[in-house]
Design brief:
mainly alpha; about 85% helix
Length: about 140
C-alpha cells in the first residue's frame, strides 16, 4: 500500500475576542428580548383585563336594559289580560246570576227581593192587627 502524505491543513484562526464579543452580544440581545417580552406581556395582560372588565360592564348594562324592557312589556300585557278577565268575569257573573235566578224562580224558590217584600207586608199586617186589637179592646 502506498503511503499517503499527510495533507497540511490551513488553520483558520478565529480570535477569541471576536467570538466572545458575538456570543456576548447574542446573550445580551436575548436577555433584552426576555425583559422586553416580560414587560410587554404584563402590559398586554393588563390591557386584556381592562377590556374584559369594560365588556362585562357593557354586557351587564345591556342585559339590565333588556330585562327592564321585557318586564315593562310583560307588565303591559299582564295588565291588559287582567282588565279583560275582570270585564269578562263581570259579564259571566251577570249571565250566570240571571240563569240561576230564572231556575230558582221556576222551582218556586223566592228571590231575595221577594223575601224582603214579603217581610215588609208581614210587618204592615202586624201593625194593622195590633191596631184592630187595640180598637176591639
Amino acid at each position: 500500500m502506498a503511503s499517503k502524505k499527510p495533507v497540511a491543513r490551513k488553520s483558520v484562526r478565529v480570535s477569541r475576542s471576536s467570538t466572545d464579543k458575538g456570543a456576548r452580544k447574542a446573550l445580551l440581545a436575548s436577555l433584552g428580548a426576555v425583559s422586553l417580552s416580560r414587560k410587554e406581556g404584563v402590559r398586554f395582560v393588563g390591557n386584556l383585563f381592562e377590556q374584559g372588565q369594560e365588556l362585562r360592564e357593557r354586557t351587564v348594562k345591556f342585559a339590565e336594559g333588556a330585562v327592564a324592557d321585557v318586564r315593562s312589556r310583560v307588565a303591559g300585557v299582564f295588565g291588559q289580560v287582567q282588565q279583560r278577565a275582570a270585564a269578562n268575569f263581570g259579564k259571566v257573573e251577570g249571565v250566570v246570576g240571571g240563569q240561576v235566578t230564572r231556575v230558582l224562580g221556576r222551582l218556586g224558590v223566592p228571590s231575595k227581593a221577594d223575601v224582603q217584600a214579603l217581610s215588609r207586608r208581614v210587618a204592615d199586617l202586624s201593625k194593622q192587627v195590633k191596631a184592630l186589637q187595640a180598637k176591639a179592646a
